[in-house]
């Protein structure tokens, strides 16, 4: 076999085929993310549980996602990104099949949590593209373009998934309906096996199991404290004490990882001047993109004649609102290369994207009474969100040395997930100040609670823009980062 360095045209041609196969993976990811949302009430009926219990599924998956990202990303750097992509797809398929036959709440909760392994797909895919384009002469540019195509495909698949389940829910048995995503994920496993080339890992060493245990404990304790606050309200003493313990656990974990030669989370990399603005942006972005969605849905369904606020929307309009948001996400992702050129650089494009998200949620504060206002607000936020979803993993890869691209891109999803989980608990507290999100509660959340949610989402996006401005200019250049660029 020839070992000659491929020319740029050859690298681009090979990249097109790889991106084509990875698009199929992201289509499966989008179907998973959009398929279940329209049929939550039917799932609750199928399991004989209250609709409010569905929230526990989301919490369990977020926790598992946040915990598995460091391990799987590290494994990708060690043994090869394709191998880990295959393993995570197999685990996701297992969880998806489990959901199809789960008889009750506990078993369904376990399957839903296992299914969360798909969260590492996009970072691993971007790491594969980043490595494949190394000899093209345009590595970072091609990585950003590939990421834009993947994220655009993901968002379009979310719409496909949502429409499919909504149309089939009355025609198919629930077990058959829930089995369809499992069929898609299983098929994707073989797509990866056949279509993606195997490359060895570029890092050496082992797995920092002690560090993984510490971060697991820290995240678990933090989530436990947030659950107490969500259940008991902002005055929960046990909730706040648990969060204090979690902060201490994170401090111990951070100091341990700084001294470890092969950390599960490379805190020296994440705290480097070129990397921390990207990771902080991902954390802050998780607040609106993950934490702000449920409040938007509940607000849209609120009857203004009963509560004095809300859109009184029917389910059809909720689908329209979600559909428009996802379409604008796809537009923001697909047009990222164009906006990068027009604005004169990646950092400027990311800053503008953060500002769009901030403006979109800020518009909710004065304009929330008419459906056209809701569509406009979510359209503006969606354009910025799509660009950020596509660009942040690629930006993290560009600011990392070659042997650390897996952990760098993976942590953008990890920090985003943690940000969304924290925001979810905070927003629940804001919306239960005088009532409950539980549909059976006699009281409802005040309008001030929703105003707080939108203000926090907007403020987080504007803070993310400031964080990006603090990054050095070379962090977003097309020149690859060198190992020596990482402190320590």
Please specify the SSE layout and strand pairing.
Blueprint: H1 8-35, H2 40-47, H3 54-79, H4 81-101, H5 105-115, H6 121-132, H7 139-168, H8 174-195, H9 209-232, H10 237-259, H11 267-270, H12 276-291, H13 293-301, H14 304-307, H15 315-334, H16 336-343, H17 346-362, H18 371-398, H19 405-431, H20 447-469
Helix pairs in contact: 1-6, 1-7, 1-8, 3-4, 3-5, 3-9, 3-19, 4-5, 4-6, 4-8, 6-7, 6-18, 6-19, 7-15, 7-18, 9-10, 9-19, 12-18, 12-19, 12-20, 15-18, 16-17, 17-18, 17-20, 18-19
Structure notes:
The structure is a single chain. The chain is built from 20 helices and no strands. It has helices at residues 8-35, 40-47, 54-79, 81-101, 105-115, 121-132, 139-168, 174-195, 209-232, 237-259, 267-270, 276-291, 293-301, 304-307, 315-334, 336-343, 346-362, 371-398, 405-431, 447-469.
Which tags fit this structure?
single chain, disordered N terminus, 0% strand, 488 residues, mainly alpha, 20 helices, disordered C terminus
Report the helical percentage.
Answer: over 70%
- Which class of secondary structure composition applies to the elements? mainly alpha
Determine the mean pLDDT. Answer: 78
How far apart, in Å, are the first and last alpha carbons?
A: 38 Å
- Low-confidence parts, pLDDT < 50 over ≥5 residues? 1-7, 433-443, 478-488
Give a count of the beta strands, DSSP E runs of length 2 or more. 0
List the helices and strands in order: HHHHHHHHHHHHHHHHHHHH
Helical element count? Answer: 20
- Sheet having the most strands: none
Proportion of beta-strand residues: under 5%
Radius of gyration: 22 Å
Coarse morphology: globular
């Amino acid at each position: 076999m020839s070992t000659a360095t491929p020319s740029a045209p050859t690298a681009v041609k090979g990249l097109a085929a790889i991106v084509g196969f990875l698009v199929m993976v992201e289509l499966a990811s989008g179907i998973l993310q959009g398929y279940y949302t329209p049929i939550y009430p039917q799932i609750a009926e199928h399991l004989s549980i209250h609709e409010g219990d569905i929230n526990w599924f989301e919490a369990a998956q977020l926790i598992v996602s946040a915990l598995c990202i460091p391990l799987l990303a590290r494994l990708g750097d060690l043994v090869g990104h394709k191998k880990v992509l295959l393993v995570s797809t197999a685990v996701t398929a297992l969880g998806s099949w489990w959901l199809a036959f789960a008889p009750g709440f506990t078993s369904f909760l376990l399957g839903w949590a296992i299914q969360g392994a798909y969260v590492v797909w996009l970072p691993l895919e971007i790491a594969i593209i980043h490595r494949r384009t190394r000899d093209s002469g345009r590595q970072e540019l091609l990585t950003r373009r590939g990421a834009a195509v993947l994220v655009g495909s993901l968002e379009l698949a979310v719409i496909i998934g949502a429409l499919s389940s909504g149309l089939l829910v009355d025609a198919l048995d629930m077990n058959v309906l829930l089995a369809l995503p499992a069929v898609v994920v299983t098929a994707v496993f073989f797509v990866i096996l056949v279509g993606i080339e195997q490359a060895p890992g570029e890092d050496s060493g082992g797995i920092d199991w002690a560090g993984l245990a510490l971060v697991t404990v820290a995240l678990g304790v933090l989530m436990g404290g947030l659950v107490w606050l969500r259940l008991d309200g902002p005055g929960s003493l046990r909730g706040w004490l648990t969060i204090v313990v979690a902060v201490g656990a994170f401090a111990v974990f951070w100091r341990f990882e700084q001294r470890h030669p092969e950390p599960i989370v490379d805190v020296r990399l994440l705290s480097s001047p070129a990397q921390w603005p990207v990771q902080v942006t991902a954390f802050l972005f998780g607040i609106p993109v993950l934490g702000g969605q449920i409040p938007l849905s509940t607000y849209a369904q609120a009857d203004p004649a009963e509560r004095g606020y809300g859109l009184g929307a029917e389910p059809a309009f909720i689908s329209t609102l979600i559909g428009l948001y996802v379409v604008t996400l796809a537009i923001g992702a697909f047009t990222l290369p164009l906006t990068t050129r027009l604005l004169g650089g990646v950092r400027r494009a990311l800053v503008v994207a953060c500002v769009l998200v901030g403006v979109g949620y800020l518009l909710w504060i004065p304009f929330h009474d008419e459906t056209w206002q809701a569509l406009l607000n979510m359209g503006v936020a969606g354009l910025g969100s799509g660009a950020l979803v596509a660009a942040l993993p690629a930006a993290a890869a560009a600011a990392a040395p070659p042997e650390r691209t897996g952990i760098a891109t993976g942590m953008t999803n990890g920090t985003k997930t943690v940000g969304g989980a924290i925001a979810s608990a905070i927003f629940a507290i804001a919306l239960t100040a005088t009532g409950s999100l539980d549909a059976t509660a006699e009281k409802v959340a005040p309008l001030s609670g929703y105003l707080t949610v939108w203000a926090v989402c907007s403020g987080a996006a504007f803070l993310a823009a400031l964080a990006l401005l603090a990054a050095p200019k070379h962090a977003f250049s097309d020149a690859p980062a060198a190992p020596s660029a990482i402190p320590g």
